[in-house]
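Consider the following input, taken from an annotated entry for Antioxidant, AhpC/TSA family (Chryseobacterium gleum ATCC 35910).
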Amino acid sequence: MKKNIIYLVLIVVIAGIALIPGVRNFLKDTFFPVATIENAVHISEEDYDIELKGINAPSTNLKNFKDKGIFLNFWGTWCPPCRKEWPSIQKLYNSRKDHVDFVLIAMNDKEEDVRKFLKENNYTVPVYIAQSPISEKILPKVFPTTFLLDKHGRILIKEDATKDWDTETVHQFIDNIIK
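Applying the prediction step yields:
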């Protein structure tokens, strides 16, 4: 009988961790950076070779950001979850643009729609449209997809969903890891 109660309590605790978003996100935010660095995937020099047409920034190539920390986000004006996370990205950009380069790539979008979206919302984060193929290693399967890359090309964070980017955890991560 005692054994069954212990098993039941363990199942409830594990289910709570897995199913309650607040608990799951807290544990992920607390332990994710360490696990990420240890198991980080590297992107190669060829993966950086993407011609970028600047929308509110000069046109460039992603390889010009190599050897720097990069906040790399793939999004679209047509994507409600992408639009939802924009205010937090703008806040993160405002406070951390001196620590990490921001590269937001609009996907499957018309240039005029992107310009209109940025203007209507007073967003100033650098936005680009890819003019050459994107490496399979970083090509998003869902939107939004965000990568935090360190100066060595390691993918420290890959987020395939909407996230509040203006959190103390993200700020500390950028300040301490992306150097």
